[in-house]
Amino acid sequence: MCGIGGFVDYERDARRGGPILHGMKRTLTPRGPDAEGTYFDEDTALIHRRLIVIDPEGGKQPMYSPDRNTILIYNGELYNTPELRTELMSRGHEFVGHSDTEVLLHAYLEWKTDAFARLNGIFAFAIWEKRERRLTLCRDRLGVKPLFFAPIRNGLTFGSTIDTVLCHPEIEPALDEDGLRMLLLLGPARPPESGVFRQIKSLLPGHFAVLTPENFTDHVYWQLEAHEHEDDLPTTIERTHTLICDAARRQLVSDVPLACFLSGGLDSSILSMLAAKDYAARGETLHTWSVDYRDNDKYFTKSIFQPNSDDSYIDQMVDFLGTHHHRVVLEPEALCAALLPATDARALPGMADVDSSLLLFCAAVKRGGTTVCLSGECADELFGGYPWYHREEILFEDTFPWSRSVGLRLGLLTPDAVRNGEEFVRQHYRDTCARAPRLPSDDKKAARMREMFVLNLDWFMATLLDRKDRMSMYSGLEVRVPFCDHRIVEYAYNMPWGFKSLEGREKGIVRRAFADELPKEIVYRKKSPYPKTFHPVYTRLCADYVRRIFEDNTSVTASLFDRNAVQKLMQRPESLTEPWFGQLMRTPQIFAYIIQLDRWFRHYHVKIV
Question: Which Enzyme Commission numbers does its entry carry (predicted)?
Fold first, then answer.
C-alpha cells in the first residue's frame, strides 16, 4: 500500500508548489515508508509514498506511459493482475516488471475509464494526462482505500488522508454546523461523501471523478443492484465457499512477509485456515497474530454483544493449524495514551480505544517483521453477523441500529451545542434506506434486510474500514480484507435471508460452507466482536483525563458538553446499559471519544464557522 497526494492549478505554475508537496509528503510518510516519487509540470504536482509489497524495482511511482503523457500514482492492490496482464499482452502491450501498478496504467491506456469496472482490488489512484490537462481520480468499489479532495480556486487538491488535503494553503480546518453535528451525533461514523471539514469531500466508493479546465464531473462505475437469487441452497453454499476461497487465494500474493489476524472467530479462522493450507503446500508455516489486554481474564464481562472471550478459541485454532502465533497484550495506560496518536492517524475522532488498541496492535505486528496481513472485516455486514440483524425490536427500529439513541448523545451536550440534531440524523438515515435497490417481489422483511445491508455497508462497515486502513497504515502495515471482494458483496446482497441465517444463526451460510474444514467449536461459536478492555484502571484514566479537559477554559470540546451529565456517568459508569455506538462502546468509550475530540480540535486548530 501507499499514500498519494497532489493538486492541479490551471492558472498558477504548479512547479512552484514544492513547499505544498513537501507538507503532503510528511503526512503520507507513515503510509509509505519505503520510497518516494514526485512529478511536476505547469498544471499539476503529484507525490507518491510507497510501502513496497510487490516488485520493488518495477513498481516505482509516479509511473509513466511509454510516451510519458500519462502519469499514475496509485495506492492499493489489484487481485486480478494476472488476468488483466494476459489480456493486455494479447492486445500488444509490453511490460517491464510484474507490478499491479504497471498493469493498471496499461489498462487505462487501453480502455480509459472503462478499465475501472474490470479491476478487482482495493485502490485509490490519480491519473494525470498532460496534453489533455486532465486529472482522473478513482476509488475502489467498497471504499477500502481512502481518497479525499477539495476544490481550490483554479483546480483541485487531493490525497489519501485528510491531513494531505489540508496541506494546501487554500484549505482551512473549518467545521460548519453539519460537520459539528456529524462529530457529536453520528461519530465516529460519517456520511460516505464527507471529509467532515467544510471544504473537504471523500470520493464515493465505486466512483471516479474527472477534472479538466472546463469542469469537474463525478461518475459511477459500480453500484449494488437487486436481482432474483436463482441458486438453490446447496448451490448457494458451494458458491459462497468458492467466492470466499478465491478472494482469499488472490490476496495471498506478496513479495514481503504476510500473516493473518486470528481472533478465534469464524471469519479470521476461515482466512487463517486457507492461508495456512497455502503456506503448507509451499513447505512454510503461517504466522498469526492476536490482541488481548492485561487482566482481561479477571475483568471480562459477558454481554449479548460479547458473549465470550477469545483465548481458548485462539489456542484451539493455533493447535489445529500449526501456525506460528504471536500474542500482543496491551496495558490500560498505553491504551489511554494511544488515543491521541489514533486521532492523528484517522485525522478525526474515531472509535476510541477500539482504534487505539488496533493502532498499538498493528505497530507490534510491524515490529515483528510482518508487512501484510489478512483480516476478517466485512463478513458480519454482508452475512448478517450482528445482533441488530436478529433482534426484531432493533431490526425494524427507525434509526441507525448501531447508534440508536440520539437522545443519549444530546443529553450529554450543552443545549446550544447543536441545532436540529434529531432531524439531521433521521435525514441521513432515511436517505440511506432510500438508496437500497429493491425488487417488486420483496416482502417487508426482505426489503428491510436490503435497507440494513446498505446501512451497514455505507456507514458501519465504512467506519471499520476507515479504522483498519488508518490504524494499520500509520505503522506501514498493509491489511487486506478478502470478505470485501465485490463479487461476494454482490452475491450476498441478493441472497435470501433464510439462506444467510441458515439454522437460525448469524452468518449461517458461511458456517455451513466451511463446516467440514474447521473445528466444530469454531464453526458454531457465537459471534464475538473485536475485543476491548474491561480494566477499571482504563476507565479511571479516561475519566481523569476528561476532568482535566473540563478544567481547561480554552477547550472547545469542554464548551460543547454538559459537565454535570458527564459527571453523573463518571459516578455511575454502569448506568449506560446499551452501547452508544457499535457493540462495545459504552461509558469508558464516551470518555475516550471526548478525549479524541479534544485532541482533534487542538491538533488541527479547528475553527467552528
Answer: 6.3.5.4
